[in-house]
């Protein structure tokens, strides 16, 4: 996914992403997202020419701004943690 995103962004271009994975969601080959797991993604972003800002928990307002009915049903940003990621192409 990052390869495709990096290809369409111009230098200095930015993108934002909201993600949420909890204990209930992950399978045997994955783990819930937390700040440590997200920090480990930084080198992968760098490999694609992207600078990842420090991940932070999304607010209810950020989730609502996406107008995602799925996020609303899941309670992302309120009863369920969601992470707000921002990256910029070098």
Total of domains:
1
Structural class: alpha+beta
Q: Write down the overall geometry.
A: globular
Biggest sheet details: 4 strands, antiparallel
Share of helix among residues?
25-40%
Sketch the topology as an H/E string, one letter per element. HEHHEEHHE
Going by CATH, what is the homologous superfamily? Vaccinia Virus protein VP39
User: How many individual β-strands?
Assistant: 4
Q: Give Rg in angstroms.
A: 14 Å
Distance between the termini: 17 Å
The fraction of residues assigned to DSSP E strands is: 15-25%
* CATH fold name: Rossmann fold
Indicate the multimeric state. Answer: single chain
SSE topology sketch:
Layout: H1 2-8, E1 14-19, H2 35-39, H3 42-47, E2 50-52, E3 56-57, H4 60-65, H5 69-74, E4 83-89
Antiparallel strand pairs: 1-4, 2-4, 3-4
Your description of this structure?
The protein is of the alpha+beta class and 90 residues long. It has a single domain (2-89), classed as 3-Layer(aba) Sandwich (Rossmann fold), CATH 3.40.50. The protein is 33% helix and 20% strand. The protein contains five helices and four strands; from the N terminus they run H-E-H-H-E-E-H-H-E. Strands 1, 2, 3 and 4 form a four-stranded antiparallel sheet that branches. It is globular and about 35 Å long. The model has no long low-confidence stretch (mean pLDDT 91).
